[in-house]
Write a structure and sequence with these properties.
The protein has 2 domains: 17-223, 2-enoyl-CoA Hydratase, Chain A, domain 1; 227-271. The strands form 2 sheets. The protein has a 6-stranded mixed beta sheet, with helices on both faces. It has a 4-stranded mixed beta sheet with strand order 4-6-8-9. It is globular and about 60 Å long. It has 12 helices and 10 strands. By secondary structure, the protein is α/β, with parallel strands linked by helices. It binds coenzyme A.
Amino acid sequence: MEVIFCLVLIRHFATLPPLPGRAMTYTTLLLDLQDGIATITINRPEKLNALNAAVIEELGLAAERVASDPAVKGSILIGAGPKAFVAGADISELVGQTPIEGQRRSMKGQQVFRRWERCGKPVIAAVNGFALGGGCELALACHLRIASESARFGQPEVKLGIGPGYGGTVRLPRLIGKGRALEMLLTGRTIRAEEALQIGLVNKVVPEAELLSTATEVLKQILANGPLAVSACLELVETGLDLSVDEAFRQEAHLFGLLSATTDMGEGMAAFLEKRAANFTGQ
Ligand code: COA
């Protein structure tokens, strides 16, 4: 267990060989890297950014890049155009799928979304409009969700005679509770941003014009903290929720101890005592 934690911590600073996605040109995504923040725009506005196989594939490559590139410290996912974050899986690709194709599609999407969730760096969904089906599930796989006032969330799959395939039945009840999740999943009802805030589906609702700047501001606030400590929090919460309370406590104590060996802990505490801002180096 300790070895895994060490690897997670070391990964931030490893100089890695070129990896898939590092230098590639995407056809369905835009990737902008500034000040350590990779902003990834899902770019099929004419189809409300629906997740076809190409988007899923490229989202997987982008997640790999975010996880592996030391120049990327955190990430924001957003949809292109004024109407949608992502309006779901591309229905035109689902029509006529065989059971095996459906299962493979689901497993591929689950694996890609999981890569985002477990990339070891903070990921914020900036939800600008419809986040339906796979779009809601993609937002759920992110660590935080910031919504514009026009955002709409839903799991409408049952209206199409199918269920969620990219983690909705798994993550939604964990985030908002079983009763509320089942209401959304069974009715397929679309909810507005303020209801999403009220039930804890999103962290913040802001005017549309402030969406990206707010997401960037929140991410910068996170990135100003000790990166090893941030990474440890992500690891502990993402794995801890699936452990028994006692196992999760043990895991927390291990990392609490391990972080004591970092230069950053010394710096963070010295900065507090000296009443100055900390200068974290990620060591
Ligand atoms: N898959 C494929 N195409 C989609 C899509 C999806 N999930 N969602 C929207 N589109 C396409 C539409 O077919 C349309 O394409 P066209 O112009 O070539 O006909 C385009 O995006 C614009 O969508 P449209 O339905 O005209 O916009 P609207 O404002 O009238 O309605 C929605 C917006 C989101 C309410 C509606 O598009 C919708 O219900 N989408 C499906 C949501 C869904 O069920 N998602 C889960 C899928 S498992």
